[in-house]
């Protein structure tokens, strides 16, 4: 029997989205544990073109055909948010492991359904928050656990960009799970939950809903209340200059991540300040997508438990849902 660590997870791609072509498919090719076996699109010409570009053996003109392929172990789903639940469950029922783009679903109830289906089928279901798999996050957790910056007092985060003029963008369809909270607000929220190891007790969010943009939240500013009076203040948007930031504030010092969610190489450096003394930490360079895929393969082959369980994604969806409700109803929502 070949040594397990040489086993390759055979991937099928459900839909030729930009994130798949630009980030995840190249990462599968770079990963130690994955191979690209098939790609599917609702347009066969499109999937054939992508297959030839990446040298993928099979191209399908429907998602159904890809799910019926017995040579595929795992699928990656980069479809619009409202299609995540349906296709993830269909893939799970076809016996495939599933890596699904974030946010996992539109609601925590949908996410629960997906998690239950995966548990029943005995397959791995993961939400594709790639940033958490970068080594810098383990280092930050170690600094926090070591007590160097004292007790955690507050977290501040932001993730914004500007696509306001791209009026055909799928992020502008509310019924498709559009809006800035689902698209980028989920990052600072997931980071705070990860760093604190807790769930917020309440959220209050103010948003700009734009009629010109399908009525979605184009910009949102929020407060998530964690136990012990620790707050995450965050903003997210698709209507402003590109910004990414995370500041972790302790009683004795701070940690600042200038490129909080997409860094991989030297741009993954962060600053630790303790009693006015500043230093720069440069974690080992890594492609966060490759790290995510290698973690996923290890879980799929049963070598170690998943780092982030479907239950974590369900909780994350509950927080996002509460944020959206708070923004729409202009009130504080308790969880």
Automatic annotation (TrEMBL):
SUPFAM superfamilies: Glyceraldehyde-3-phosphate dehydrogenase-like, C-terminal domain, NAD(P)-binding Rossmann-fold domains. Residues 138-256 form the GFO/IDH/MocA-like oxidoreductase domain. Residues 9-127 form the Gfo/Idh/MocA-like oxidoreductase N-terminal domain. The keyword Endoplasmic reticulum does not apply. Pfam families: GFO_IDH_MocA, GFO_IDH_MocA_C3. It comes from the Bacteria. Keywords: Oxidoreductase. Coiled coil: none annotated. One of its GO terms (molecular function) is nucleotide binding. Belongs to the Gfo/Idh/MocA family. PANTHER family: OXIDOREDUCTASES (PTHR22604), TRANS-1,2-DIHYDROBENZENE-1,2-DIOL DEHYDROGENASE (PTHR22604:SF105). This is Gfo/Idh/MocA family oxidoreductase. The lineage of its organism: Bacteria, Bacillati, Bacillota, Bacilli, Bacillales.
């Amino acid at each position: 029997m070949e040594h397990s660590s040489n086993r390759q997870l055979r991937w099928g791609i459900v839909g030729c989205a930009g994130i798949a072509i630009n980030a995840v498919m190249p990462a599968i090719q770079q990963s130690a544990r994955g191979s690209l076996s098939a790609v599917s699109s609702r347009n066969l010409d499109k999937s054939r073109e992508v297959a030839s570009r990446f040298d993928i053996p099979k191209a399908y003109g429907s998602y159904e055909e890809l799910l019926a392929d017995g040579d595929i172990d795992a699928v990656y789903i980069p479809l619009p948010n409202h299609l995540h639940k349906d296709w993830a469950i269909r893939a799970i029922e076809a016996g495939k492991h599933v890596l699904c783009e974030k946010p996992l679903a539109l609601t925590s109830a949908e996410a629960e359904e997906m998690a239950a289906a995966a548990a029943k089928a005995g397959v791995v279901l993961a939400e594709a928050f790639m940033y958490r798999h970068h080594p810098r996050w383990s280092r930050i957790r170690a600094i926090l656990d070591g007590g160097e910056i004292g007790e955690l007092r507050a977290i501040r985060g932001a993730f914004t960009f500007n696509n306001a003029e791209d009026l055909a963008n799928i992020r502008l369809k509310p019924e498709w799970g559009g809006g800035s909270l689902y698209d980028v607000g989920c990052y600072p929220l997931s980071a705070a939950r990860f760093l604190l190891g807790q769930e917020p007790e309440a959220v209050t969010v103010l948003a700009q809903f734009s009629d010109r943009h399908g009525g979605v939240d184009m910009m949102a500013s929020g407060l998530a209340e964690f136990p012990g009076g620790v707050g995450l203040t965050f903003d997210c948007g698709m209507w402003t200059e590109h910004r990414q930031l995370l500041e972790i504030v302790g009683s004795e010092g701070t940690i600042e991540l200038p490129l909080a969610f997409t860094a991989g190489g030297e741009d993954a450096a962060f600053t630790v300040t303790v009693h006015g003394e500043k230093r720069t930490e440069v974690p080992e360079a890594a492609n966060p997508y490759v790290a995510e895929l290698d973690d996923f393969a290890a879980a799929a082959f049963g070598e170690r438990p998943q780092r982030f369980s479907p239950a974590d994604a369900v909780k994350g969806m509950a927080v996002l849902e509460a944020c959206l409700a708070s923004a729409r109803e202009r009130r504080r929502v308790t969880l």
